[in-house]
Amino acid sequence: MTMKLNNLKPAEGSTNSEKRIGRGPGSGHGKTATRGSNGAKARSGYSKKLGFEGGQMPIQRRLPKFGFKNPTRVEYKAVNLSSLQKISEKFNVTAIDQDAIIRAGLASKNDLIKILANGELTAKLDVTANAFSATAVKKIEALGGTVTKN
């Protein structure tokens, strides 16, 4: 048998006939069109709202509100003394300011920087930042360095 366009057909079992719903009682899918009996789901345009629990009071309304967002909070990017030591060794500098910290990849240009006292510092450094912890100031000044807030 030669292959011709008029005798081409899909492989056996590869296709299903479309279920034509709502086309009268003879189709077997008439009247309610496979939607069951009454209710919101039987109506056109139905879509379940996010968090809907069947009319029961949803959990986001049952539970109380909590927490507090402080509108005047100032958030700092923390930089430790050990990081300052690495910057001074890597770039061979004695004065570290915001630009040096940004170049080292420890903060972005819009961050406020606070120097914390974690780690060891061996170099005498002149450090400029937005804020310092009291212990960090003591450690920097103990080595003869200076601290400048900007």
Task: List the topology elements.
Blueprint: H1 59-62, E1 76-80, H2 81-91, E2 95-96, H3 98-103, E3 112-116, E4 126-129, E5 131-132, H4 134-142, E6 146-149
Parallel strand pairs: 1-3, 2-4, 3-5, 4-6
Give an overview of the whole structure.
By secondary structure, the chain is of the alpha/beta class. Helices cover 20% and strands 15% of the residues. The protein has helices at 59-62, 81-91, 98-103, 134-142; strands at residues 76-80, 95-96, 112-116, 126-129, 131-132, 146-149. The strands form 2 sheets. Strands 1-3-5 form a 3-stranded parallel β-sheet. The longest helix is centred in the middle third of the chain and has 11 residues, at 81-91. The radius of gyration is 35 Å and the shape is elongated. The model has no long low-confidence stretch (mean pLDDT 94).
Low-confidence stretches: none
Order of helices and strands: HEHEHEEEHE
Q: Largest sheet at a glance? A: 3 strands, parallel
Tally of helical segments: 4
Helix/strand structural class: alpha/beta
**Mean pLDDT level:** 94
- The fraction of residues in strands falls at 5-15%
Distance between the termini: 90 Å
Rg calc: 35 Å
Proportion of residues in helical segments:
10-25%
What global shape is seen? elongated
Order of neighbouring strands in the sheet with most strands = 1-3-5
Q: How many β strands by DSSP?
A: 6
